Amino acid sequence: MYKKLFEKGHIGSLTLKNRVVMTAMTTGYAGLDGAPTEQLCQYYEDRAKGGVGLIVTEIFRVNQEHGVAFPRQMYALNPMNVQPLAQMAERVHQYGTKIFAQIHHGGSTNSPEMNGGNLVAPSAVPNVSGIMPTPLTIEQIEELKAQFIGTAAAVKAAGFDGVEIHGAHGYLLCEFLSAAFNKRTDQYGGSIENRCRLITEIIQGIKAVCGRDFPVAVRFSCDEHDPFHPDSITLAEGVEFAKLFEAAGADMIDVSNGNYFCPYGENEEPYSYAEGWRAPETRAIKEAVSIPVAGVSNIKTPAVAERLLAEGVCDFVGVGRAHIADPEWCRKAAMDRNDKIHHCIGCLYCFESLMSVGYVRCSVNPKAGREAALHAEPARDGMGRKIAVVGGGVAGMQAAAELGRRGFDVTLYEKAKTLGGELNLAAATAPYKEKVGWLTTTLQAEMEEAGVCVKTGTAATPELIAELAPEAVFLASGGKPIIPPLPGIDRENVVLAADVIADRKSVSGNVLIVGAGLTGLETAEKLFRTGSADRVTVIDMLPKIGANMYPSIFIDVTHQMEGKPLTLLAGRQLKEITGAGATVLNIEEQKEETLAADYIILAMGTKADTETISAYEKAFGRVITLGQTHKNPGRIATSLAEAYIAARGFDPLV
Ligand SMILES: Cc1cc2nc3c(=O)[nH]c(=O)nc-3n(C[C@H](O)[C@H](O)[C@H](O)COP(=O)(O)O)c2cc1C
Ligand code: SF4
Fold first, then answer.
1. C-alpha pair distances (Å), 421 with each of 400, 432, 518
2. Residue whose CA is closest, atom 8 of ligand 2?
3. In degrees to the nearest 10, what's the CA dihedral of 104, 105, 107, 109?
4. 494-604: what CATH class?
5. Segment 23-39 mean pLDDT
6. What topology is assigned to 386-481+607-649 in CATH?
7. Hey, which CATH number is domain 9-356, 3.20.20.70, 3.40.710.10, 3.10.350.10, 3.30.470.10?
8. Does the global pTM surpass 0.85?
9. Whose CA is nearest to atom 30 of ligand 1?
10. Which of 87, 183, 299, 450 would staple 123 via disulfide (CB 3.0–4.6 Å)?
11. How far is the CA of 46 from the centre of ligand 1 (A)?
12. What is the pLDDT of residues 393-446, one digit of tens each?
């Protein structure tokens, strides 16, 4: 069905088995020495096995003094790393997949701490944190050029099929391209040709050292989408850059966009972006050059990828996060089984975990980041032993599917008429959050395939479950909403966010939302979108609104409410609900304030359901408690991974 996707393609002299490129994504799985680890090799091997035509690896640093972007970042200029890199390439090649190394320097976006205080850039223009970098001297530029070229030669020696020069996202080479960050008056600044010169000289240098046949791709931001710098890159300039890269000998253009200043997460899109939204930019580049063009576009589904190819937007589709979410994206697309794909939902937990703990994890793929540890097939030793799973949310469904696959006789009980639990709430907050609901569909299909008996509309109790006589109970019935025992909390105008999102309760007029996490903010957004409120105030005890949210996700939701009568108040603790609204404590000033409201919505999260846990623990010898039932705040990623690991490691003989 996806004819175009699975046509062969060519990059210079290289033939790819299909039109799907897994774009570069830093994982944090490399060693501190820059060599690939077993985890990194297995991660790429799984994606190659999953059928992708070309893998562009994550960034390789080319310089150790001022070019370090991540501690666990690949590095090829140490001769000790060449053999491990060769092993990695071989593991990818065994599935007919090609591999390019992405070569990179972070420029002013690098952290001074990781670079001995050295922040370099084309010119002294403050970075997004306001830190002033030092302009590179001509000698340093010459040295860097040699390091980019040397890295290409090293990966070629390791058997890589090509390189991609990273000129996108506001990093050093992008800074050279951009008149906003490149104020040089020498041969590397000023005209478009001069701003492209460093990249064109790197292309020519690689070709001279590695041979004309060694493919060189260039990824660059064709539009920086930077409202703060009027002279940042525009699409009209991007088109000219592409022509110059082609003339210098590049074999492929990989179109991306954005820099660190772009406000709405344009280059790693959060929930609200449509699939394929970058098509006009990619098409403009494609129309300007005759070499192949690859383009990312928030692609989640094979149908959109096929459409972009069929409409001539690009020659290759760049499919990034969809490959973290499901390494078998291509294989399933080739079998026309979109229904089997674990779709990326756009939550950006991958980036959030990379930035917080230093390596990528994924909300919908519990194996991401654990490929080496979970490589072996799980034991198929269920032998029809009975297991009860209580709760049909993300944790319950994931545990049931895995236990079913292992050969247990699994019955899942869900009190609601439909599966999904909190996923349904998340999916119902806004039309663009529909993607979250895809996970319910996938897990439901997996349970079906694994032979799980699903009883929806059935409120489980220990007595009911006892009739099944299970060997163990996996308890994933969820947490309890936090309702503080305050004066007035039981008034009729106090409702739970979950009830508003699910349209079980309605509100109007002046609305106060208590809790400025994702649920509280999305509830506010829904009230404005549906015209249910005239004015909304959201308060939180924490000193900052959205303090625990990943910034892109926070901006994604608050951006939808720009211009609306919304007030966000941090550092306010709910004290009392009165006839006129609520009394709150201004924590910093230690004084009480009155907030007028017709309705008060509680979005304060959930707490562990200790009563249910102890009732089941009293009734059964083996109870495995999962997800929000015992852990808060619950995240899709942590609930899914916990359930998967518990079900996979469950030992029936203990
Ligand atoms: C965790 C993560 C790491 C990334 N690292 C890189 C990188 O090293 N180099 C790069 O050019 N782009 C990087 N990107 C951007 C992706 O290649 C891709 O352009 C972006 O995710 C949008 O495409 P998608 O919607 O298909 O994921 C990264 C994205 C994510 C989510
Ligand atoms: S963590 Fe979220 S955005 Fe990242 S790949 Fe997984 S589902 Fe997609």
1. 14, 18, 17
2. 344
3. 60
4. alpha beta
5. 98
6. Rossmann fold (3.40.50)
7. 3.20.20.70
8. yes
9. 25
10. 183
11. 18
12. 999 999 999 999 999 999 999 999 999 999 999 999 888 999 999 999 999 999
